[in-house]
Design brief:
With about 190 residues, the protein is mostly helical. Helix content is about 60%, strand content about 5%. The chain is built from 7 helices and 2 strands; from the N terminus they run ααααααββα. It has helices at about 5, 15-35, 40, 55-75, 85-100, 120-140, 160-185; strands at about 150-155, 155-160. Strands 1-2 form a two-stranded antiparallel ribbon. The chain is globular and about 50 Å long.
């Protein structure tokens, strides 16, 4: 729990906490798996037009930054938030299936602008900061808004906070698989 959440003596909703902890465990496991690679390896392009491992990490950080910003913005307008409808749930499921299919997809322009070179320790610092902010938002997340749309996804529409966390996990796993394949190719 972050210091801000501790000082207010708040507890995160248990369902959100499970999803948040899974995100954190996945992220830490990935960063541990990448720790043995050099900066050169982490910034090596696997092929023309394909992202390096660090570019994938930068993309994940950017997606989470945009997601957190959207959630914060939506929470400023609580009276205007809409319930999640069936079609949004179906679209969210289709995105989940697509991310788990193993296929590669072109990132939406808003989250495709990643640096040519990056340093993993700096990316980790950015990610740590974002995760602390996300933890604070989830800890103070109003219970009555759990089924309201708070994340504007470019293909799905407005996702609830539970759907948003599921999307972030699925998106992370999609990129994690790509990065681990790249790592294998680099060390073999």
């Amino acid at each position: 729990m972050s210091l801000n959440a501790q000082s207010l003596n708040l507890l995160m909703n248990p369902k959100l906490e499970v999803k948040y902890l899974r995100l954190e465990q996945s992220r830490n496991r990935l960063l541990d798996e990448l720790a043995g690679l050099s900066d050169e390896q982490l910034n090596t392009y696997p092929a023309a037009g394909k992202w390096s491992i660090n570019q994938h990490v930068a993309h994940l950080v950017l997606v989470e930054e945009r997601a957190l910003s959207s959630i914060k913005q939506q929470l400023q307008q609580q009276d205007t938030l809409l319930d999640i409808d069936f079609s949004t749930s179906v679209k969210a499921l289709l995105v989940k299936l697509a991310l788990h299919s193993g296929r590669k997809y072109k990132a939406p322009a808003a989250v495709a602008n990643v640096p040519d070179q990056a340093a993993l320790p700096e990316l980790r610092q950015q990610w740590d900061k974002l995760r602390f902010e996300l933890e604070d938002e989830l800890t103070s997340f109003p219970h009555h808004l759990l089924e309201k749309g708070v994340l504007n996804h470019p293909m799905v529409g407005c996702l609830s906070i539970n759907q948003a966390l599921s999307f972030l996990q699925d998106h992370f796993e999609h990129h994690r698989q790509i990065m681990l394949r790249q790592k294998e190719a680099l060390i073999s």
